[in-house]
Amino acid sequence: MSVLVQSSHGWVLDARSFIDQGYTRCIRCKNNQKSRVKCCFKRQYYYIVKSHNSVNKSAAADGGNTEPLQKTDKPPKKRKRRHSELNQGEVDSQAFHEKIRSVIKEGTKSLVDSARSLGHLSGMSDGVTEPLPSQECSLAALCEMAKELPLVDDEEQEECTQLLVTEDGCTSHVDLFSRVTENRTDLATVVTLMGDEYVIPPDAGFLLSDFTRIQPLVHYGRRFDLIVMDPPWENKSVKRSRRYSSLPSTQLKRLPVPLLASPNCLVVTWVTNRPSHLRFVRDELYPHWGVEVVAEWFWVKVTSSGQFVFPLDSDHKKPYEVLVLGRYRSSAAENSTSTSEVPVEDQRLIVSVPSALHSQKPSLSDALKPYVGAEPKCLELFARSLQPGWTSWGNEVLKFQHTSYFTLTPSDDRGDAPEGEATEKPTASPVRSPGESVTVPPPRTDA
């Protein structure tokens, strides 16, 4: 379980524990040979021991993403402020912060105190000494190249899904860019795709594409009960660093959410601390899709000892990000008489140690379970990783599944399955075909 503490204030989550529990049983397919391995996400990515008490002023308040928090002996360079007066965006940010400050402060203290009483967030080292590996993801570049490929008409494309693992348990060629690829087995699988190894969780589906090739997801044949998205918001910090391609807010309206959402689907959007983005989601984006705003939650980022990663009242980066939760109100939902919908409480906190990897968010699966019913169909948009049982879409959808982020060790744990066999789930959705080396089109971007 990734939930360490739950109360009326919210949850304390162990994000790395959630990742690892999806890989307790794993098969590695290489050169048509299968072996059992144990996969664990590298501990050093979640070993955040030091709070940032000073922040480079160039990191404007509009960029809520977590930066790698590494120790440094060099103080940040100070830049002179051009104007003594706050601009409108800064005034709005300050007003929003004052509005929610007590909720963040009091709720976090209560949750962290409860976690410490149970032995969590103690700040104790578990021997993590390895440096963070550097791994550049080329998936977005591949997606950009794939834009040059001719689009396939809906009538011409007979199959929009394919299997990652064949019936004999091996992988073969897959088209990652125009079909949803599924691992329909109940084992995690390490496979070779585009010359690199990736860890694919059990019962997971994914599509590597951007807006120009999102149609296979629409034709996938699923309506989802939960849709979570982490858009690549535009902000000055991202433009300067060029870490990824950002997306103008208005372009988000192109997402076919009404074609993907089931009646009363819970829609959750990660929003940076830029007030204009929050207003856009609440006042334009959700109404455009027919989604009713039901709550605002906050992800509070703390160190391994439970301290805010940034000062709560910092003028620049804040130790929290906003999530806007809404319900898709289709005509079918309005005419339904279902009384099973669980009301979503407002201003709940998700407290966790953030990843040192840029833009890697904690999974919300365990926290959202009460609000989406039993065995929900779940979708993540703009995903950079996969989750067991979820469908994921994005131009870097496999980024954090690369084996460089994991520690792989041989395992003789055979579990329930016969040796070397990945059992196929009889109830899995219509899907795909294999993947080892890939005859794939080049890619594109979310943007």
Automatic annotation (TrEMBL):
UniProt record, GO biological process: methylation
Organism superkingdom: Eukaryota
One Pfam family in the UniProt entry: MT-A70
Single GO MF annotation: RNA methyltransferase activity
InterPro entries recorded: DNA_methylase_N6_adenine_CS, MT-A70-like, SAM-dependent_MTases_sf
GO cellular component, one term: nucleus
PROSITE patterns: MT_A70, N6_MTASE
Region Disordered, residue ranges: 57-91, 408-447
Similarity annotation: Belongs to the MT-A70-like family.
UniProt xrefs under PANTHER family: N(6)-ADENINE-SPECIFIC METHYLTRANSFERASE METTL4, N6-ADENOSINE-METHYLTRANSFERASE
The protein, known as: Methyltransferase 4, N6-adenosine
Lineage: Eukaryota, Metazoa, Chordata, Craniata, Vertebrata
